[in-house]
Amino acid sequence: METISAVVIERNEEKNIKECLNSIVNKVDEIIILDTGSIDSTLSQLEKIKTNKIHLYNYLWKDDFADARNYAWQKATQNWILWIDADDRLNSSRDDLEKAIADRRNTEIGLVNITEKKSGHTMPTPRIVKNNFKDLCFFGIIHEEIRARKKLDLKEFNSNINFVHTGYDDNEVVARKKKRNVKLLKRMNKIEPDYQRWVYFLSRDGQGILDPRDIIELILKVTKNFELVDLKYNLGMIENLISASMEVGNINMVYENIQRLAHIYPECVDAEYYMSLMEIQKNINERNVNLQKLYSFRKRMMENQNKSSLINSNGYHLDKLICFLLYDCFRYDDAKKFKEYLDKQGYPSMLSEEQLKMLSVI
């Protein structure tokens, strides 16, 4: 019978460690915990867990995730290793694990389905590996991957193993981790500048941190022809390019890559999403132009002593239309001001009951 080591690398995980371990303790044969310098109550919580399966090791953090994983790997003694983060929960049974690794003589890496608790988004991710440190190891100081020490053709298998990723609620923690990731990914990109994995993750994690023009340049350097790009990262890099192009307002590049996305991945729903998003933005832009024209016209006409109107000589009907357009352009604060002005004049707005409810809570 195949046996399983679970490996958890953690630091300051007092909010997560207990639930994580409870989800695996009765499903694996041993648990390797690598603590990289906790200063909260994580270690004291570990002492309270009644099991002889847990083996705790202290590790001096070196800003190198592969080094930490390789250190922990060498402590595992079972046939297979299940890598699980402290904010993950294993939702599969021991039987599920045994079925997943049974008769896998010619495959080394297993994919598990990781579902984000908040969004429900699921991604297959390599988290099962044959315990063969002689031939395999992790490489990469961030977003590390399993590589063969020699020229071996590594094979992956899909599994029905399911994790739930709870993530972190503290926005400061998330922002700090993101900045750390970008810093380390820049180093990996210098080490292997032509490897698309680092470009994909840097262009993804760098959104909101890096200049979007730099992201575009970064991607285009390694994607002379998207049809020849490594399929693992092709889809992600096209979508990262679309996002960066949107940010800088390069509409031609946006549409070019939406079409590329639809052509290479006809089953991917994201192309339709981006196309619809662009059409919505186009409509919003057009409404903003019309709004500005109407606002300028109103101002000009109100200064005209010879103006006339059969609808309202004070131009309140123009204010009514401006109020509606402001709401339609998501300028709720401005719409509310115009609505309050119309109310004072005793003139009805064009807003529906639902729209009025929305303004009432702003």
Automatic annotation (TrEMBL):
All copies of domain Glycosyltransferase 2-like, residue ranges: 5-101
GO molecular function, one term: transferase activity
InterPro entries (alphabetical): Glyco_trans_2-like, Nucleotide-diphossugar_trans
Keyword match Transferase: yes
Keywords recorded for this protein, A-Z: Transferase
Annotated protein name in UniProt: Glycosyltransferase
Organism, as annotated: Pediococcus stilesii
